[in-house]
Amino acid sequence: MGSTERPVALPDVVVTNLHRRYTGVSATVRALVPLQRQDLSIGLLDWGGLGLPAQVRWGQLLRQGWSRPSRGRCRVWHARRDIEIACGIVLKKLLKQPWKILFTSAAPKPPGRFLATLLRNCDAVIATSERSAAYLDYPAEVIYHGVDVDHYSPLDGDCLATLRQPVDLSGVVVPSKLQGLYWVGAFGRLRPSKGTDLLVEALIKVLPEFPDFGAVFTGLCQAKDMAFFEIMQKKISAAGLSERIVFLGDLNREQVLACYRRILLCVAASRTEGFGLTPLEAMACGRAVLVSGAGIWPQVVDDEVGSSFETGSTDSLIIVLRRLLADPDLLWRMGKHGRQRMVEQYSLEREAHKINALYGRLMS
Predict the structure, then answer these.
(1) What's the DSSP call for residue 138?
(2) Residue 142 is inside which H or E element, if any?
(3) Ramachandran area for residue 123 (φ above 0: left; ψ -120 to 50: alpha; else beta)
(4) Which of 1, 15, 184, 241 could crosslink 215 through cysteines, CB 3.0-4.6 Å?
(5) Cβ neighbours around 67 below 10 Å, total
(6) Quick one: DSSP state of residue 68?
């Protein structure tokens, strides 16, 4: 006997994640979609195994793509990568399905020729910062990335004294000498664009003056950057700081959260950055931040929540780092202000609401 189940209706919005590896874009989709679904019917076309329900399949798009949406006159195809725009264009232009194509742009540079061509076929563009919007030749709505302030949050009983207590990172080995120190933390890929080498150079200069501090780096180092990584390790070893400047590797989400909660200062030294979520996540955990002028950071970080240094300048980074490490109590107060700012102005719920509002305008 044939199945009597009715086919699942195609959602009004399809969000795409057409990448096998878990990236920053993947993390954004994974965090936003559950919140957005509280108000709208949203499906996910996913190659990356994000584990969210309501998956959309290509067969469903080809069978039901011409059907009438439940609200408005068109469905929304939300892309965050070039290939995802191209797929939306095929559905809309070639197959004549009723889609509005929305693209989120975070790049801190003008789009290349191929992306520029694709953007001319989009119905709307979200820029994650004013800087990203300025590089586009197309009108864009600026919607900042938000932070999950419920997940990224301080522990109960969080205080300055607890930050020098040992932390369990579930199998990640932390040198015993480092466990009893305040931590400076850096998060994200280990590569030149992230300014990892700038921070290592600065720490080698500054940490001997501050015996109560050590530093941890988390993040993946790809094979192409391994020589870069090995040079930094040799410099750290030559300075006698191998137990105070430690690379913890590519950690999972819970391990990264534990590191955010353990540090006293988060440093983001990127030479270039699309948006730059890690300092905001650290702020949501109640931690002070020191940032370059890349990404969204000049719009978010001021003297109340942290400090900044001249992008690409090790000398500038050393000067500011030295000033901040001299006053742990100041860093603690900055972190408390940072937490408040994230909750009030940069929550994930706020981002989800703004994107859903844009969906509604496109559909109608």
Answers:
(1) S
(2) strand 141-142
(3) alpha
(4) 184
(5) 13
(6) P
Which tens digits make up the pLDDT trace of 316-325?
999 999 999 9
User: Would you say residue 106 has pLDDT above 80?
Assistant: yes
**Alpha-carbon gap, residue 332 to 207, rounded angstroms:** 19
Cβ pair 190, 219 in contact under 8 A: yes
pLDDT at 62 over 50: yes
Torsion of CA 335, 340, 345, 348, to 10 degrees: 80
In this prediction the pTM is 0.82
Judge whether 153 lies within some domain: no
SS3 246: strand
Domain span at 105: 13-146+347-363
Asked whether 122 and 85 are in contact (CB, 8 A), the reply is yes
Q: Which two tokens stand for residue 292?
A: 């370059």
Let me know: does 143 contact 350? Beta carbons within 8 Å: no
Looking at residue 274, what is its pLDDT?
Answer: 80
pLDDT at 181: 96
Please tell me the distance from the alpha carbon of residue 318 to that of residue 104, in angstroms, as a whole number.
35
Positive or negative: CA dihedral 154, 331, 265, 339: positive
For residue 100, give the CATH number of its domain: 3.40.50.2000
Q: Is 98 exposed, middle or buried (0-12, 13-18, 19+ CB in 10 A)?
A: middle
> Are 251 and 140 in the same domain?
no
Q: What is the pLDDT of residue 151?
A: 92
Query: What pLDDT does residue 113 have?
Result: 92
